[in-house]
Amino acid sequence: MLNAMQLLFLGGSQNLVPFLVVVLLFCSPCLVPYVSVELMLMLFFWSKIIVFAFFFSFAYLGEARKKVYFNNPMWPGEAHSLDVKEIIYKGKSEYQEILVFESSAYGKVLVLDGIVQLTESDECAYQEMIAHLPLCSIPSPKSVLVVGGGDGGVLREISRHSSVEHIDICEIDSMVIDVSKKYFPELAVGFTDRRVKLHVGDAVEFLRLAPEGKYDAIIVDSSDPVGPAQELVEKPFFETIARALRPGGVLCNMAESMWLHTHLIDDMISVCSETFKGSVHYAWASVPTYPSGVIGFLLCSKAGPHVDFSNPVNPIEKVEGAITHKRELRYYNSEMHSAAFALPAFLKREVKSL
Amino acid sequence: MLNAMQLLFLGGSQNLVPFLVVVLLFCSPCLVPYVSVELMLMLFFWSKIIVFAFFFSFAYLGEARKKVYFNNPMWPGEAHSLDVKEIIYKGKSEYQEILVFESSAYGKVLVLDGIVQLTESDECAYQEMIAHLPLCSIPSPKSVLVVGGGDGGVLREISRHSSVEHIDICEIDSMVIDVSKKYFPELAVGFTDRRVKLHVGDAVEFLRLAPEGKYDAIIVDSSDPVGPAQELVEKPFFETIARALRPGGVLCNMAESMWLHTHLIDDMISVCSETFKGSVHYAWASVPTYPSGVIGFLLCSKAGPHVDFSNPVNPIEKVEGAITHKRELRYYNSEMHSAAFALPAFLKREVKSL
């Protein structure tokens, strides 16, 4: 699940501003806490809040403590705002703050630590691509591991694959799963598949203990590589993944925006080329609510049988039951699969290994 | 050129807020003029302006008249904001308000009537695709017409094609051309090509007077179909284009976002299928500063020699001098050309004629 945007949110204020809150997302690293109590007051006295502001710290208004989420470092110098119809849930787990709101343009939105993870309207692109790019690239996948993905959307997509016999999912935060089951049933339905085995815990530890060569495919549906997810883009993590894959097994890892994060992409590709020793490719998809409107995927195969990622050997249209699944495919098809590997000239130039 | 975002801009205020202005873009149709003088005052007293607000009308602060650009109806319920380093130019032509500013994330930005038209960082995707998708789909294009495109970026791209002998451009607003020549020399360089003939005037009238069958390709680089550009998506306009194309000649027309404007796309395709009687296809590209991060292109061929748009018969890599042009291609290549025609499942379902 991608961290997408900086979210500004007035904690505890939903009773006071019940109608419309504009979630303001901003990322300029030079922003400073210029917002005054004056502005905060306006927020409370307007029946429709149409704008508020950026903080680097807490602000107070009377008795109410204002918690503000800020600064997605993955998207400096710009902001994306969603019109909020209603705040549906707000809580704090052992690991992060969790927010669910109803937006006027994208349906319900899941936010973790102030960063938009998914919206009902465009989650299809991310979930379908991160699941089917790897699973359609190998014949008859049987054993799959999902790292992260507590909302269940990736599981929902994996469940289209009738060849799959076993799906492990290792999610660190059980509250994300609970919130998804309550507010995002169209994603959490993935947990109802009888092939799914849930492991709540640290994925790095889980992978260390996994039998060598256990998985045909591993899908890393993690947060942005800042904060706690940092180690998920480092070499030791990829080494534990490579170890857990069978020869010719595949990894699909969320890999940021080609417009914004070419250095990070370059680094990940270098590390993965050394580690997996099979093929390493980059693909991308359009997701409007993610920074710069795109999200990338790193696809790696472990040394062994060759994997031709851009020409799916196991096309979704031929997977029994995949198309007639109770939820239709919304973004993915075999044409989109192959097209996702076409890369802009600037990316090929900047990331030499592509 | 695509109208992309709603831009909020305090006219005449650049001397008073010299350091940093946040351009706030918002599109909710339900927004009302809730901004008070209180907020406006804050704008002037902060040395770094980090937020301001949404208007449907003019606001005043002391003597200074505040003009606000607002409400791109193509993108309701969300907003995109760019951090403004410096306002470089502001003026008003016979047709529209013109603004140029330096952003911190995307270089210089051109804004017409409050809607972002292009940024230096991502204009490559739009200009290269709208020019090369049609020109690489036909063998040896010789006569080309550009409708709109006053910034010169499309001309710059057409000039890579050594087969082209004559380029007409019909732009209604000469001030756009002048502003581009002054502030966007990397785009306006397109006007220096000796094959270019500039016609300042109304494109509908120009096309009516054009000899039948004159052009191999027509590229419509227009604004969003709201306001004055409305007639550029209607049947009579497409009929004049079809008339001006040779048999088997091609049109490439800016065609909005597949995420936001499926009805409009459906309408355009229906009209064009009736009008051109050749093939009609939809392609898309990633452009971060356009609504939902994508822009679409409608590609039509007039009845005559068949045009296989998704497999370029005139690949850019084989066009003499196209790759070694003084400016490198940044987005387009033949892989991106073909990939652009792969469409998400939802679009194929919603636009039946695709």
Automatic annotation (TrEMBL), chains A, B:
Transmembrane feature ranges: 16-35, 41-61
GO CC annotation terms, alphabetical: cytosol
CDD domains for the chain: AdoMet_MTases (cd02440)
Keywords noted in UniProt: Membrane, Polyamine biosynthesis, Transferase, Transmembrane, Transmembrane helix
Record-level Gene Ontology MF annotations: spermidine synthase activity
Active site: 221 (proton acceptor)
PABS domain residues: 59-302
Listed InterPro entries: PABS, PABS_CS, SAM-dependent_MTases_sf, Spermi_synthase, Spermidine_synt_N, Spermidine_synt_N_sf
Entry's Gene Ontology BP terms: spermidine biosynthetic process
Family, similarity comment: Belongs to the spermidine/spermine synthase family.
Entry protein name: PABS domain-containing protein
